[in-house]
Amino acid sequence: MPTVREIATEIVTREGGYVNDPDDPGGATKYGVTIHTMRRLGLDLTGDGRVDGRDVRKLSRAQAIDIFIRHYFEKPGIATLPKALQASVFDMYVNAGANAVKILQRLLTDMGFTLKADGKLGPQTAKAADDAMQTEPALVVDAYGIARRNYYFRLADKRKASRKYARSRAGGKGGWITRAEAFISVRFHLSNSEFSKRVASWG
Question: What is the pTM of this model?
Answer without folding.
Answer: 0.90
